[in-house]
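Lab notebook, bench 4. Still working through the backlog of constructs that have no structural model yet. Next entry is a single chain of 188 residues. Request: give me the structure tokens for it.
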Amino acid sequence: MFERFTRDARAVVRGAVEHAERTGARSVDAGHLLLALLDRDAGRAASALAALGLDGRREEVRRALDETRRHAGLSRADTDALAGLGIDVPDLVARVERDHGVGALSGDRGGEGGRGAGRRGLDRDAKDTLEKALRLAVARRDGHIGDEHILLALSIRPGVPGEVLADHGVTHASLMRVLHGDGQAQAG
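Model written out:
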């Protein structure tokens, strides 16, 4: 599959591996793919994110991903829903981190039994995202898999990266309008 990736898409995957290594994650996940997409200044995905107003809010998205990771993968919507049931997720996270260290709920801590400094593999979510990118490219009869296909896959698949994008006004529909429509789409 990787032979069909454009240079930009390959750079996204390499960037995701670098993000995982920097944070000590055991494997590369879909969130790392999104972070790598946010790092890029070139490519169709970067252009689409800029058109939807996300280029100036990259750090905001990074913080949202970090917060979600610290909250054991619970999105803002999940946290709000639990708050409605009287469960204070930030308080729970603070108590767990006080007893077990910052990031204890993130699942990223390599430590014992982890891969350590070795090469990071893709987790199931990242593999599924890249497979979805392939399917999107095939459905459009594109002869390649570009960084825009990875971004579209993240926006359409269930999970934290798609929810974080949607929370910041980047949806699958708005991306499709920008990438394949008139380019005048508004976030939302």
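Notes after review: The longest strand covers residues 27-28. Residues 109-116, 183-188 have pLDDT under 50 and may be disordered. Flag for follow-up if needed.
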